[in-house]
Amino acid sequence: MKIMRNFENINRIVIKVGTSTLTYENGSLNLRRIEQLARVISDLQNSGKHIVLVSSGAIGVGAQKMGLDHRPTTVKGKQAAAAIGQAQLMEIYDEFFRQYNQLIGQVLLTHMVLTDDKMHQNAINTFQTLLEYNAIPIVNENDTVVTDEIVFGDNDTLSAHIARMVDADLLIMLTDIDGLYDEDPNENLDAKLISEVNVITDKIKQMAGGAGSNRGTGGMQTKLIAAEIAQGSSTKTVIMNGNNPTKIYDLLEGEKIGTYFDC
Q1: What positions does the entry give for ATP binding (predicted)?
Q2: Does 220 belong to an annotated binding site?
């Protein structure tokens, strides 16, 4: 069955951006891309939409600022890198969004927000109030205090849970690949992009490989999990390449960009 992309009535959007999209190969921030993303999100806000940005990158940026040539492997190392990197990341976001007269708010979460009813409701209330004030929540996992017991594990999954909490119409996951392929495009040049998915079957799951970048923690598998979570709350999902954030305009106008998961 052919799926029709119709985003005319999309008003509340969660945009997730991964570390590989935000940084260069050496781990330094890609300021041009962040500025483009901030401009697009600001313009969407001006048009009357409400955007929640889920942003990775804190640990990677922190590691680079600490002079490390790799992501820390210990919990305390990751926590230190996250503390340093998150501060710089938010400073950059604030600078760019301020140029477009946009108000932002930092929200750091752990997995406990899903398991503790009071914390879950408090998080929902915070998001709703920020959106009422037309502020753009910028969300990340609270890596500075996280342990294996309370970890989301990746921001793909986090973005899907946030989409459910804010009743988002659409979840857009920006990554370093055009979408879901029937085979690994890095190994098979004849791999074909799957434009639309109606049901996430075992066959679809088998098409997903491991982590796509050594600068991030996610991969196509976690994005499929996120799409399944989003589908549970009737949120449409798109996985698309984030190297040109202005393509979000084309997506919302109905162009067949990335892989679209209907709900």
Answers
A1: 16, 175-176, 217-223
A2: yes
